[in-house]
């Protein structure tokens, strides 16, 4: 067994060897414990009892959040995270941030730098544990996983996302206000009691949250200090995403769009501000309309690709970014209000309010 070095950083090959040595040991133990727990639950026929407490949309959202945390944990286990996480990910977050946030991130960098192998192992398995609790745990363990999700989301949002770059020219195109903040809000929503989930309050909460998200996105995109109205701010960011190691069919459209952003920055930024503001307005006045749902889904999917670059590519992605979280919420919302987003029933009701499900 290799002794963990609690002092200076280790050479990359040794650091990776130590990390994966413990990763596979903990992985086997986790798989064994999870298998035993699932088998015991099946033997006691607990699944049928649990599934009646909340509507089915609740469990879909719960499993979706669990799958995202599990994916985030696996992304944290990438080799570059072990050897370059401070210099390639944490250190650049400090640039341009207000003093209080720089201090918080600097504390995180100093603590992480004591032993990157140990802290990366901890971060990896905290996120994997949350995913397993939400996906496979019984009701008490799921609730524990949701509270752990709340706590860890705050840590990641502050120390790993610099509060979604809200104070440093953030944009929905790069994931602001931060996927960790969205994880936090989902966990808080999932912690609400069954009575809340079986009332109209849950759909109102989602629609108001959607309006707030897109309204904030419009504000961030329009903020003059962010520099989106002139120069190469937007195009440079999209070019940098397109340059990440990835298939050409993903990057080629991004290169083309980046060129357009560089040629007409004010025009494109005005279009984005109007589009985000329109979405905010639609979620206020027509939250149950199929049009609202489809426009939101198409805008989210497009920006998840052409701005956020799906979040997981290049070897340094820590999560699939904010777009996939919104898509998950949209799917849950459509299920909760029985929105006919597919099929022939969509078209006759395109411009009408959907009837509230009783």
What does this structure look like?
The chain is mainly α and 358 residues long. The protein has helices at residues 12-43, 46-50, 56-76, 79-90, 99-114, 116-136, 139-160, 179-190, 194-197, 201-222, 233-242, 248-263, 265-285, 290-306, 321-336. It is built from 15 helices and no strands. The chain has 2 domains: 9-198, no CATH class; 200-358, no CATH class. The model is unreliable at 1-8 and 344-358 (pLDDT under 50).
Rounded average pLDDT? 87
Question: Which structural class matches the secondary elements?
Answer: mainly alpha
Major pleated sheet? none
Report the span from N to C terminus: 61 Å
Gyration radius, rounded: 22 Å
Secondary-structure map:
Elements: H1 12-43, H2 46-50, H3 56-76, H4 79-90, H5 99-114, H6 116-136, H7 139-160, H8 179-190, H9 194-197, H10 201-222, H11 233-242, H12 248-263, H13 265-285, H14 290-306, H15 321-336
Primary descriptors:
mainly alpha; 15 helices; disordered C terminus
Concise structural overview:
This protein has about 350 residues and is mainly α. Helices cover about 70% and strands about 0% of the residues.
